[in-house]
Amino acid sequence: MIIFSIFAAVVQRTRERTRPIFNQFDNDTNGDQVRIHLLAIASIFIIILPIIVAIIVSTKESGIVTSVTELVPGTSGSANYQRAVFELGFWRFMLNSFIMSMIIVVGKLFVSLLAALAIVYYRLPYKNLIFLFILFTLLLPVPVRFVPLYRLAVDIGWNNSFLAITVPYIASATTVFILRQHFLSISESLVETAKIDGVGPIRFLTSVLIPMSRGILIGVSVIMFVFAWNQYLWPLVIIDTEGQQVAQVGLNILRGQASSGEVAWSMVMTGSVLTLVPPLALLIIFRNALIETFTIQQK
């Protein structure tokens, strides 16, 4: 229900801001609410249906489902999860993904906070042009950067290391944009008071901006964690050692090949469910911070 709560809250806040424009339709409010909730429920069902199927298949011995009537939980769920985590060492891939994601989140927050601080509060020449250039990096698709980035990582000896899968993702135009929008909403009187009291920029950042931006920072961190956790193509390219791979790539290890040549889909779905747990837990725990972040993006 986390997706439904976020969707409903964002829709409600949008309606509150636009209510003066649509006062003539107040009589249809109840009907609109019913349609919105029905649409949300239908959307949620479509979204979570593959997850339900994956959970069911992960409890079966072979994982082969040929009809709808076979979509019932099996009896091998516990054995499948124990084998995936311990016997096939999937816990190591998840640990690598967690370490990679945390390094990316902390690095992005550090760089983005300093960048947003400079763009909003410093009198820099052409700072609007600089900000547009930062946003322009969003237009560069990741595959375009793979070849030069791979050559650079190999030349400096970063291949097969956490540096290769973390440092390229530390700079984030999206995070800079969100933090800039939030900093612009902070009262100018607060900034002037800090200047009069002789508060320096770093102290202003740590003592004023960060405490006032706690909800936004948590929401942004969750988004960045999910983004980093789901990285697949770049770790697959730059990491050659199996023990240093991340969870998304490690799913291939769980496939296995039976004597008949069939893929062990039950193990694949088991790994897929395991990789879903950490980001889903964060989305549920910090859903309110996510709603606040989405509201900032709308503004």
TrEMBL record:
Q: Does the keyword Membrane apply?
A: yes
All copies of the ABC transmembrane type-1 domain together span: 94-286
Major site of localization recorded for this protein: membrane
Coiled coil residues, start to end: none
Q: Which domain of life is it from?
A: Archaea
Record localization:
Cell membrane
GO CC aspect terms: plasma membrane
Instruction: Supply the alphabetized keyword list.
Output: Cell membrane, Membrane, Transmembrane, Transmembrane helix, Transport
Q: Does the keyword Cell wall biogenesis/degradation apply?
A: no
Tell me the GO BP annotations in alphabetical order: transmembrane transport
Recorded topology in the membrane:
Multi-pass membrane protein
Mark the transmembrane ranges: 36-57, 98-122, 129-150, 162-183, 204-229, 263-286
What InterPro entries does the record point to? Answer: MetI-like (IPR000515), MetI-like_sf (IPR035906)
- Record's family? Belongs to the binding-protein-dependent transport system permease family.
Question: Can you name this protein?
Answer: Sn-glycerol-3-phosphate transport system permease
Q: Which organism is it from?
A: uncultured haloarchaeon
